[in-house]
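Example record for the data management plan.
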Amino acid sequence: VFTDPILMCGPIIAEYLSVPSVYFLRGFPCGMDFEATQCPNPPSYVPRLFLNNSDSMTFAQRVKNMLVHMLEFVYCKPVFAQFEDLAYEIFQKKVTATDLLSRGSVWLMRYDFVFEFPRPVMPNMVFIGGINCGQKK
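Corresponding structural encoding:
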């Protein structure tokens, strides 16, 4: 199943049909892509989304980054709760959104590694940045 996993319907269908899934995405909220792939994501090193921090943060920026990281658990749980309920109805067992995402075979990341912050990635994460850029005139 080739899908954008934000809405979680693709991962649920892939799990239900027992077929591999390929994820095509630009970014995932709350760092769930890191958690699902078991990729290291230390808050003192990797800047959080929307904070405008660079990869060389000051101590105050690192503290702010850590606080935002801790708040992600609070505001991200309700976002994916409806999909977890849907998965429970289909599979008749408790499945978290992270569990569903962790079964992805390949993650096609629409990042350009040159322009993103340096961070560790897993072998099944492939950077394909620039595929949706217009031709320069």
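Summary line stored alongside the record: The chain has one domain: 2-127.
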